[in-house]
Write a structure and sequence with these properties.
single chain, alpha+beta, Aldehyde Oxidoreductase, domain 3, Aldehyde Oxidoreductase, domain 4, five-stranded mixed sheet, 17 helices
Length: about 750
């Protein structure tokens, strides 16, 4: 039987791969023009206070320096803070660079030196002399937690904790088996391969083309237009390639403001790029403390779940994430009390970082579940099966689909879980202790309204366009696959244009919704072409498709063919010619509540995973290696197993980093991050990563998105740190509740 699908579901290589490996892909800091000037940011040396004086004379005297901008001489921009809001910003007052003499955090930009070259700008920036008036500061969450509060205004798109169910405290007190603990995760800082940068190219007509490191070109465009009082027609934002976003580019960052400000003021092109060190005054995952209490029967069935989280935020915004809700979602219990609070610190506002909130809360929950397994003597997998949630009890809704049981089964089988000796410290090889641990993972499966354009030309070429950026996940490839299959074309005949604010509308790229959203929009646009092509083909005199409907035909090999009789066909070029057309174009949208979306609010939709980890620990030195991980994932339809596997591999590596390496260290006396370089802020490297196996569990879901996709960008990291921590306990008998797990914690009594 004829089928349209030829590429979707197949492990296709990235269509943008050759461009990237040959160095032809151009990133935000690589665009140039003859009159390009370079900006270098001067950062504050204190976390809170005011600038008493700032002397820029020595910097201005350096040959090649064009201008030094400070709060005293900056051009006029929008006055009200709401003008600086963006699509995904939290409640509060967004940071306004160079707005006043107030210092709100260490590393705050307080001056911009613009020069003819980057090196000159950097040298001149070192000559800017600043005198401060210091104010008492607080950067220690351990102290600030006592003044935590429930955020009064909720962040758009972030679900607050559900209302309590039953009496969790009383049920916990009466439970035969009780476990309780405090779990903490250090602040983690974004360090994508491409640091943040903005290149503003000013045209002869005064219009700006902005090459920005962003996960939302139209979000950046709207921000620039609002802040500087420009028409959107005067600002084009372009980001065809992004060297890793991971949430750091969801919001417009200060280098965008500074580059545009300087370009408008100087009437020339300007680039501002951050150094690796300056990235540590930037977006980060907030330090978070979790308190989890589980009450259960002797059979391991949960009766009470209490989960409170306290997360750091800035003094000027209430950054919020979904941290505790997972505890009311993953496992059923009659009595549940979930609370999420913030504590204000003198830091830059935290931001979204791969699966924001979920790895924090799930680490605490899944560690506590492992403690419960030890207390009851029940196998950790079996314990989770006994507490399997058949519906979303937070929302009292059924799931669109859920194959977590199968994730447990396939993951355990592949890992060899049945061979695990449950006794801590019982498995070893030579001088190494061996530990096996596991954890569940969960993430939201969302879809956002997105538009896409499809244009077919008589030469058999199909052009796809959407403002969505490819943030390194393989979006170019999967959209080419969807489009090629829709019209029965080879992938080589499909050209995909992305990351341009002039293209059809798209939300920011994050949350694992890009594939479902942009993919469904492309599918909808191609469906419109299919309908029109069939209509044109049916009008041809003697057409074999005269009585055919869409369900009767397949688009394959550049033709429309009858499924019942494949020899009867009309080439696409002939259909166009019959309509007197050189090309055919359609722009369509897809999203929740639009045509093609079934039951958008009656069901809950999530991806799920089961993560199994093996660690080996030198019993004398405490050196820990994660030697094996199996991640079994249920995420609906897998468009491209090759790029999908890469997404999970990357997420698992992030989980290893959270578990063992990443730790922002602040000297609270100074209020400054001290390990602000990759020499001291550790991330996993090749030597840290061993065997990772990814299993995609078959899962059909037509309710989540029209193309059955749930998304994969986040789920890989969720649960990984917990699985590793649980494996450490199995190896050593030591329960380490503070991440990262370091040698000193392993060797401690």
């Amino acid at each position: 039987m004829l089928k349209n699908d030829l590429h979707v579901g197949a492990p296709r290589s990235r269509v943008d791969g050759p461009t990237k490996v040959t160095g032809q892909a151009t990133y935000a800091a690589e665009f140039t023009t003859p009159d390009l000037a370079h900006g270098y940011i001067v950062e504050s040396a204190i976390p809170r206070g005011r600038i008493r004086s700032i002397d820029i004379r020595a910097a201005e005297a350096v040959p090649g320096v064009i201008k030094v901008f400070t709060h005293e001489n900056r051009p006029r921009t929008a006055w009200f803070s709401f003008s600086y809001q963006d699509m995904v910003g939290p409640p509060g007052k967004p940071f306004r660079p160079l707005y006043s003499d107030e210092i709100q955090y260490s590393g705050q930009p307080i001056a911009l030196v613009v020069a003819e070259s980057f090196d000159v700008a950097r040298h001149a920036a070192s000559l800017v002399a600043v005198a401060y008036e210091r104010t008492e500061h607080e950067t220690d969450l351990g102290r600030a937690r006592h003044d935590s509060y429930e955020p009064p205004k909720k962040r758009l798109g972030i679900a607050p904790p559900p209302k309590p169910r039953g009496d969790a405290a009383a049920a916990f007190g009466a439970a035969p088996v009780r476990v309780a603990g405090e779990y903490a995760i250090a602040a983690e800082f974004h360090n994508p391969m491409e640091p943040h940068a903005t290149t503003v190219i000013r045209g002869e007509d005064g219009k700006l083309t902005v090459h920005d490191k962003t996960q939302g070109v139209q979000n950046s465009q709207a921000y620039v237009a609002s802040v500087f009082g420009l028409s959107k027609d005067d600002v084009r934002v372009v980001a065809p390639f992004v060297g890793g976003g991971f949430g750091s580019g969801l919001r417009p960052q200060h280098q965008l403001f500074l580059a545009v400000m300087a370009s408008l003021a100087l009437e020339r092109s300007v680039r501002v790029e951050l150094t690796r060190q300056q990235m540590f005054g930037h977006v980060h995952r907030p330090e978070t403390i979790n308190l989890v209490s589980l009450g259960a029967g002797e059979d391991g069935k949960l009766r009470s779940i209490q989960h409170q989280a306290i997360a750091a935020t800035s003094r000027f915004e209430d950054h919020q994430e979904v941290v505790v809700n997972w505890s009311g979602l993953l496992y059923p219990a009659e009595h549940v009390d979930l609370r999420y609070e913030l504590a204000k610190l003198d830091i830059y506002s935290p931001g979204d970082m791969r699966a924001p909130g979920a790895p924090l809360g799930v680490f605490a929950l899944e560690s506590a579940m492992d403690e419960l397994a030890v207390s009851t003597g029940i196998d950790p997998v079996e314990l989770r099966l006994r507490n399997y949630a058949e519906r979303d009890e937070n929302e009292d809704k059924p799931f669109t689909s859920k194959e977590l049981r199968e994730c447990y089964r396939q993951g355990a089988e592949r890992f060899g879980w049945s061979r695990r000796d449950p006794r801590p410290g019982s498995m070893r090889e030579g001088h190494e202790l061996i530990g096996w641990g596991m954890a569940s993972g969960v993430w939201e499966a969302n879809m956002m309204k997105t538009s896409a354009r499809a244009k077919l030309t008589a030469d058999g070429r199909l052009a796809i366009a959407c403002a969505t950026s490819d943030i390194g996940t393989g979006t170019y490839t999967i959209l080419a696959q969807i489009a090629a299959d829709s019209l029965g074309l080879p992938m080589e005949a499909v050209e995909v244009s992305l990351g341009d604010s002039t293209l059809p509308d798209s939300p920011v790229q994050g949350g694992s919704w890009t594939a479902a959203s942009a993919g469904s929009a492309v599918s909808a646009a191609c469906l419109s072409l299919r309908k029109e092509l069939l209509r044109l083909a049916a009008k041809i005199d003697g057409s074999p498709l005269a009585e055919a409907g869409l369900g009767d035909v397949a688009f394959t090999q550049g033709s429309i063919r009858l499924i019942a009789d494949p020899g009867r066909a009309v080439p696409l070029a002939q259909a166009l010619a019959a309509g007197g057309k050189e090309s055919l174009e359609a722009t369509e949208s897809a999203g929740p509540g639009l045509i093609g979306m079934m039951l958008p609010k009656s069901h809950s939709s999530y991806t799920h995973s089961a993560v199994f980890a093996e660690v080996r620990i030198d019993e004398d030195l405490g050196v820990l290696r994660v030697t094996r991980i199996v991640s079994a994932v249920a995420a609906g339809r897998i468009l491209n197993p090759k790029t999908a596997r890469s997404q999970i591999l990357g997420g698992v590596v992030w989980g290893v980093g959270m578990a063992l390496h990443e730790e922002g260290m602040t000297d609270h006396r100074l209020g400054r991050v001290m390990n602000h370089s990759l020499a001291e802020y550790h991330v996993p490297v090749n030597a840290d990563i061993h065997d990772i196996e990814v299993i995609f569990v078959e899962e059909e879901d037509e309710k989540t998105s029209p193309i059955g996709v749930k998304g994969l960008g986040e789920i890989g990291v969720v649960g990984t740190a917990a699985a590793i921590a649980n494996a450490v306990h199995h190896a050593t008998g030591k329960r380490i509740r503070n991440l990262p797990i370091t040698i000193d914690k392993i060797l401690a009594g």
